[in-house]
Amino acid sequence: MKNESVNRIKGLMENEKYIEKKVNALSIYNVYWCLYELGWRRQLPTETVLKNDSFCKLQLIRILKEQRYSVRSLNIFLEVSAENSIPLPYVKWFYEDARAALWLKMVLENTINSSEPIISKSDISIFIHDVIFNKKLLILDKKIVEENSNSQVKLKKITLKSLKDAYLLSQVNSKDIKWLTSKSNSSVKINHIYQYMNKLHDLNNLRRNKESKKKNGGRKTNINKAGCQQALICSDTIKFKETDTAMRLSHILASLDYWMFDTYWFYKEGDVVDIEKADNRMLFISNMEDVWNSKQRRDRNKIKKNQGIDLTNDNKKNLKHLAKVYSKTQREVLNDLVETAYSQIPKQEIKLTSPFPSQTAFFDKIPLEQPSSLLSEHSEEESFSEDTLLTKDKQELSSEYYAESVGSSSYDNDAFFNNIPQAQSSSLPSERSDKVVSKVNEEATTFATSKQKVKSIETFPPKGNYGKQPEDFEKAAEQNARFIENRGKNH
User: Are 490 and 382 spatial neighbours (Cβ–Cβ below 8 Å)?
Assistant: First the structure.
């Protein structure tokens, strides 16, 4: 008795090891078909095959052990499961492609009312799983229905094969959407097109509306809003986040593919294709590209407006024409125009420093004497003679300098006389000294005024003479300096 029980236990342990070995060797896809077979045998605890890739093998092993499958019964079970399964090539076209899966979702939602919400990639995986293992799909009178049948798997194979053929024929040509699938500005581009397709459009009359607009001279015609619809299919149940641009792109492409589903459902070679529908789809794709290009242009103009010069539309056209004529870029043409215009303006600069730095420094060193209280006839006469001499010398210097500087000097004469310290009453008699000072200042003012009347002072010195003093100016400055110095010594 003990030997029999021991042998039975050993046999059970060997069966369990064999079950674990066979199940672990199966793919995830085949494991689900084994669970599907258990469901048909009423040995599955749930009514449907739930998706759980991480634990589906453990679940199958546990059920097979509980049902005490022997080596022989397990092998028969695996053979039956393989016969009653749908081979992977029948479902691979949407099993590994989110775009095709979303297209299939659109077809089923509009036929059998498959309204499961999809908001992420994981939801697409669950939908694919349910289509393969849980939905009872078949075709009746060229319509997809969901009904029980004794030949469920066989009829589902036929249905999926027909759907695959329709999908491949309905797909948009990759060349027509290359601008959309390219990686440049992908996130901004996809989100912008996603919003555009989510708006209402008169999809069935795009070509006619465009031709009518041409006839009306570019003016829009009244469109019946009742016939408008969204180009983004199933937007109420398929909603991807703005950050999930990969899934949004799949949704866009699937919607464009679905446009021609009715045309290619049960299509046979030689059947008449709805040319107007195909033309409307091509026109809509072209409109999508135009919308994207318009956004790019607006964004570029915003950047240009913030960073550069905003030209008028006419000048933009003219600039473009000039660039074409001279075989240059628009930027090069603008630079050439600015350089040419600037070269025609005299190159001048404002000189803010003193025109006589040496003379100014000399006068700054002359000490100012305190006024004397002593007055004499001798000082009065001397001051009078000095007054006369100063006036005479000043007139000679002025006439000499004026003759030379009228045509060539570019310096501010006011600055010259302003740099001469005003005569302070030193040892000169107060009345006489005041007269001398007044007369000197009057002469300086008269000279500067007459100079300005003859010719306006040039703000900018001639090219090549920056920082140089005219020789006559230097001579005049030295004479004035010697005169004032001698006068100071005599007093």
Answer: yes
